[in-house]
Amino acid sequence: MTQPQKTILITGTCDTKGDEILYMKKLIESKGINCLVLDLGLKSDPAQFTPDYTRYDLSQAIGSSLEELMEEAKAGRYEVAVEKLGGGAEIIMKELVEDRKIDGVLSIGGSMGTALALRTLRVLPVGFPKVLVSTVAVSDYLHPQFIRSDIILVQPISDFFGLTQWSERDLKRAALSLCTVVAEEDPLEEGKWIGLTAIGWVASCAGPLKKLLEEKGFKVAVAHSISMQSSILEDLIRQGVIKGMIDLCSFEILHEITGAACHAQNRLTAAAEMGIPTIVGPGNIGAFAPTARDMTKFDKQGRFTITHNEIIGTAKATIDEMIKTAEIMADRLNRSKGKVAFVIPRRGFFIYDKEGQMYHNPEGREAFIETIEKNLDPKIHLEILDCHWDDLEYLVRVGELSVEYFAEI
Predict the structure, then answer these.
(1) pLDDT, tens digit (0-9, with 9 covering 90-100), for 342-355
(2) pLDDT at residue 262 in the model
(3) Phi and psi at residue 12, in whole multiples of 5°?
(4) What is the spatial distance between Cα 40 and Cα 18, in angstroms, rounded to a whole number?
(5) How far apart are CA 134 and CA 155, in angstroms?
(6) pTM to 2 decimals?
(7) How far apart are CA 394 and CA 360, in angstroms?
(8) Is the pLDDT assigned to residue 241 strictly greater than 90?
(9) Is residue 193 a contact partner of residue 213, using CB atoms and an 8 Å limit?
């Protein structure tokens, strides 16, 4: 049986990147893949070709006219006009995905084009193939909060001012990467998926819990809690892919409070909104992980810190910060529409939080626990065990509750 022809959508500002977009379009079509173009440019129509979705189409999609957007730009509100154009692109792209008219999206941009591309790419579901070739792909400007998805980023070695051997090389790399993915990749596997968050200092639970659940017929996706993976899991919960959560390490909340690098903001909210069964633990609450570049800032605050390598270190949280973390966790969990259990080991929240270890903090732990007890809604099942995170007692109890809570998934 002949497979239907695949289709890739290219997005970009055709008024400034027309040559580059046309080059990638021809390359994609030479591989037997259909290619559509959505124009994000505001200033003028491209001379090289006619996009399948023009700037007129984008303005109409938001109930406006191109003339109105151009007037806003002339009045000095260029960024506002471009943002509105991006809103039109979002609407069209959502429709194309929902109607299964495209199988992947390839975007190109400088700084403005990248901002527009990221806004539109975020409307695509996790797992949907998406590639962004950007002059600022590897830079401080692309914080994970602007990406928030599984985008393949391609960093070109030179800017785009017409085609050169170098730019063609980079564009070819981006286009062929997506062609391969679209032609050969399977969609995300369905099933009884459970999300599990952990990092190295609380990983003693992760392996055994994953094995236990897999033996029960579940599929387990583990997210590394100092990466964007926790944010991606939150999106997968909202997409209905993740059916249950063992959220052992949501210490990104501590990062939000301390001002350290935070790659996944608003943790614990998706599970609460969607009402999926959730087991929560206080993994690593008491220490956080700044970038190596920020370590000096936390050193100057008088904290205990350790630099681990050239990209990351750790710093000790204050008691007030642990209290604030507990308040936020309780507030977010209290909004849960589903069944939630919070299991806390009183004697330590991670490997280095025990007597004699560098992050031992009994006062901070007790303040955290007291705050949870005070603020957590009685509808949420709270267990405080007289053990340490690494003790078998804690692992066994979390495993028992997981099997119980996920039984009806």
Answers:
(1) 999 999 999 999 99
(2) 84
(3) 175, 170
(4) 11
(5) 6
(6) 0.90
(7) 18
(8) yes
(9) no
